[in-house]
Amino acid sequence: MITGQNLVGGEWQSNNSSKYFKTSNPKTGKNLSISFEQASEDQTNLAVDSATSVFELYSNTTLKERAQFLGIIQDELKILKPQILYCYQAESSFPEGRAFGEFDRTMDQIDRFIDLLNEGSFLQATIQTQSPDLRKTLVSIGPIVVFGASNFPLAFSTAGGDTISALAAGCPVILKAHPYHAGTSEWVARAINNALIKCDLPLEIFSHLGGQSFTVGSQLVMHPNIKGVGFTGSFKGGKALYDMSQKRIEPIPVFAEMGSINPVFILENKLKSDINLAEILGQSIGLGIGQFCTNPGLIVIHDPREETDFINSLQMKIKELSLGPMVHSQIESNYNQQLIQLKNKKELLQVTASENSCAALGVTSASIFLENLDLAEEVFGPFSLVVQCKESSELLALAAKLPGQLTATILGDINDRNILQKLLPILKEKAGRLLFEGVPTGVAVTQAMQHGGPYPATTDCRFTSVGSDSIYRWLRPLSYQDCPNELLPAALQNENPLQLSRKVDGVFTNSAI
Amino acid sequence: MITGQNLVGGEWQSNNSSKYFKTSNPKTGKNLSISFEQASEDQTNLAVDSATSVFELYSNTTLKERAQFLGIIQDELKILKPQILYCYQAESSFPEGRAFGEFDRTMDQIDRFIDLLNEGSFLQATIQTQSPDLRKTLVSIGPIVVFGASNFPLAFSTAGGDTISALAAGCPVILKAHPYHAGTSEWVARAINNALIKCDLPLEIFSHLGGQSFTVGSQLVMHPNIKGVGFTGSFKGGKALYDMSQKRIEPIPVFAEMGSINPVFILENKLKSDINLAEILGQSIGLGIGQFCTNPGLIVIHDPREETDFINSLQMKIKELSLGPMVHSQIESNYNQQLIQLKNKKELLQVTASENSCAALGVTSASIFLENLDLAEEVFGPFSLVVQCKESSELLALAAKLPGQLTATILGDINDRNILQKLLPILKEKAGRLLFEGVPTGVAVTQAMQHGGPYPATTDCRFTSVGSDSIYRWLRPLSYQDCPNELLPAALQNENPLQLSRKVDGVFTNSAI
After folding, report:
1. Are strands B11-13 and B20-21 parallel, antiparallel or unpaired?
2. What is the count of structural domains for chain B?
3. For position A305, what pLDDT does the model report?
4. Which residue on chain B is closest to A426 by alpha carbon?
């Protein structure tokens, strides 16, 4: 039963003087019956103060205890799976398959952090036994605020990568629920709260606050005890949080993943020889109804004699795309407004719309694109812009003009090697992940994944928001000098009780000292 | 022969329309004869553009080439050692011993980075061979600005840790010379420039710009092609650079190490039993004429019955301290002004001044300190404030009120364990390095060192500015997906040509794939 209440420092609270908001079903266009309470300033402060009060205790839990806690979160998510998935489908346009898929992805992500905690070397324990005796390890930075994302009600929201990586790092989390799927978020929050109860951990470790306006989020980010922020969403939203965090007396890191147009460059010979490109790219554009941050929003083709069928084929593919409505009607109406504006720019691009969905494809020339660089702005949804380059120099000039991206893809065959070798160093400076086959949608949750890229794709390209390395966002190094063995954290004690691989006097070893 | 010119993109340039400034000898109070040119806006831009133009080439040099380059820098520094050390002593108050010591420290620091490059695992090569094939490594972030520090004309300046770590990371460097030791800085810049020539590397990799005002530095930080900044100095200077960097269209990281008062807590039994404390702390306060960022500026003693000789002994020690003048007369006059203000606050603290030097000691009570927290502001120089706590609760309350610090020291013996265990978790949140013996001055350049701490000690406590891990400030992760082997950076190629320890499918190995 969804209550619409806030989970404040471990307690589900009703607040009679609250503002209320509702979620809606984009498939029916109707509001759900539940009224959600917007957290008050007092509740927001209490959530942060509660998190602060248990920070020391939680950050001192063992890696095993935290791994166990994450495992119990999985168990509780499984118990509530029917309710979660029912609500997921009632509050979003996504079909059952996507609901199941995203649930599984969320569970898999938690698995990765359980593995990380069980293995332990992420603590980067480094010991120097000469005088002075210096021992360094990573420690938790403090209470973290995580914002649920609109496009991933599970995998990038309440028990998503940001929350789980922060909990794995020993940081309490205050989750600001995304107002489009506040019910789904509440069910997941219940699972986390239940897991805390079962693990006999302080319930203050996790709070869950609702709100439709920017108020709750900004109060959280400005609270002096908050030490870091995780966000996935629009440039506008992420940049506003980032700027706010810099105006605090103590600036704090805001890890905002703000999307990107993920350019795909198709080189001359590949374009001619690979007849499957339009099919593959068309599918990628429609995937998740275009609502992946790695959606290929820009396709740059090197087509000197304009002799390829690629554009026609891709237009056909887009026309035929059959997609459901977007995750939320507000997102769809924003998208449609952007499309109308693009369609009106007839002198700049030709827009082909799908007959069965909101998908669309724009086509323009390199010369027009280079003079209208606002065409490189993200259109969040199943839209992509094809830019035709007659000259390879145009393609290189275009690459050089692009802002930072999560991904950049180069599709070329062996005969394209010459131009590819000129393009690669340009794109290397632009992206967090470079692809040489396939499409950028699909973000594997592994240690080799980098999901993050130069600004404005993210606010800090030195970190990833997907994959186990995302834990480093919530940790900082601390050195102990000449510390009595029994006062050291377990990771640094002589006996190596955690059996970590540690760097001792420059050499990795699992041995005791 | 010092020219006073700027080294712009590898070329020593004279600029007739420049503003000029001079350096002075604090021992004589007289200016040196050389006139230094302030870099013009054109020169500043040219330096950054030059660095940008060679970034790709330099970032693609092999680790061996970079290690060789750093080795040749050492050789060139040795060749110019007589000139460097002569100028060092002419432009600072520091005696010959300090000049030699800091030169050696500078060389040792370079050794650490040569070792790091020869070993190579800092690239954190991570490979996942399943589909998709994903390979991640760290890559250079771009041209870096480094500001020379006033208190370390060599080890934290032109060929200091910031410059050398950035060069090791494959980033070109523009060095803004500290105006107090512009001549020393020019000699060191010549060594780096000579090393580039000998290594047949593009001279644009290193520029050296002078200027007395804030203008050159702010132009550099605001230049869109600059990707990171290293700074060691005052809170005011560091925070100004940081705030500026956040106003750019693309915010960039500014690693500002802004000093700290490095609190030393002496617990009750230790205070009674260790008769050497006053001697050791007195020496530490005077070390480097008080101009170390780890100077113990606050000494908190737990002295319930006020029966200890510690304060008397430390006052005696400070009175007898014989120190030279501070590094620069301007720094000394700032320091003396602060002292005068403190001496005038008779109702807050009692100040004992040295008879032979500018050293001084303040004494106050915990209750006064807790009501006048501006007493926790850094007094840069050989000054320390002793705070007497009658109750252990005062000591804990005081610790909780402190802002972020580079270091915090707890001196206690086995009978102090009870209070120590309460104090430790508080200080853990406040500092980058915790000491349990000795004094915080002395910062070992090793992998286990953390020189950095929570704001306002630094602007980013997740990184260190001393030790080989300081290289991570200038690197970011990049993933390659399904990349042809020959297009991968060497660190990620199947053959493992660099013979790195790499994480392949979750397991560390030196093997080829």
Report:
1. unpaired
2. 2
3. 85
4. B56
A142 and A119 in one domain? yes
Taking Cα atoms as reference points, which of A398, A393, A384, A425 lies closest to residue A304?
A393
Q: Give the start-end residues of each E strand in B40-172.
A: 126-128, 134-140, 144-147
B1 within domain boundaries? no
Check whether the bond before A82 is cis (ω within 30° of 0): no
Task: Read off the pLDDT band of A289 (50, 70, 90).
Answer: confident
Taking contacts as CB-CB distances below 8 angstroms, the residues of chain A near B435 are 481-482
Contacts of B507 in chain A (CB under 8 A): none
Binary contact (A444, B56; C-beta < 8 A): no
CB-based contact A139 B428, cutoff 8 Å: yes
Closest residue to B455, CB basis, from A56, A251, A449: A251
CATH code, domain carrying A273:
3.40.309.10
Note the helical H segments in B180-249. Answer: 182-198, 215-222, 235-247
Instruction: Give the pLDDT band (50/70/90) at residue A290.
Output: confident
Residues 6+ apart with CB under 8 A from A483: A133, A135, A492, B434, B436
Query: Measuring CA to CA, which residue among B136, B153, B233 is closest to residue B188?
Result: B153
> What's the pLDDT tens digit per position in A310-355?
999 999 999 999 988 898 888 999 999 999 999 999 999 999 999 8
Q: Which domain holds residue A79?
A: 33-258+461-472
Helices and strands per DSSP (H, E), number in chain B: 15, 23
Chain A residues 276-335 with CB within 8 Å of chain B: none
| Structure confidence at residue B389 (pLDDT) | 97
Grouped pLDDT means (10 residues each) for chain B, 513 residues: 95 90 92 95 98 97 97 98 97 93 97 96 95 96 97 95 98 97 98 98 98 95 98 96 96 94 97 95 92 94 88 96 88 93 95 93 97 93 96 97 97 96 97 96 88 96 93 98 96 96 93 95
- Cite the active site residues of A: 257, 293
State the amino acid at position A477 in one-letter form: P
DSSP conformation class of A458: B
Question: Chain B contacts of A483, Cβ < 8 Å?
Answer: 434, 436
- Do B272 and B150 belong to one domain? no
Q: What is the 3-state secondary structure (H, E, C) of A13-71?
A: ECCCCCCEECCEECCCCEECCCCEECCCHHHHHHHHHHHHHHHHHHHCCCHHHHHHHHH
pTM value is 0.96
CA distance, residue A25 to nearest chain B CA (Å): 35
The first and second tokens of residue B123, run together, are: 């690239």
**pLDDT value of residue B442:** 85
Residues 335-374 of B with CB under 8 A from A: none
Strands A30-31 vs A134-140: parallel, antiparallel or unpaired: unpaired
Closest CA to A288 of A175, A188, A155: A155
Residues A275 and A248 in one domain: no
Distance CA A461, CA A450 (A): 9
Q: Is A430 on the interface with B (CB under 8 A)?
A: no
Complex prediction ipTM: 0.95
Same domain, A184 and A324: no
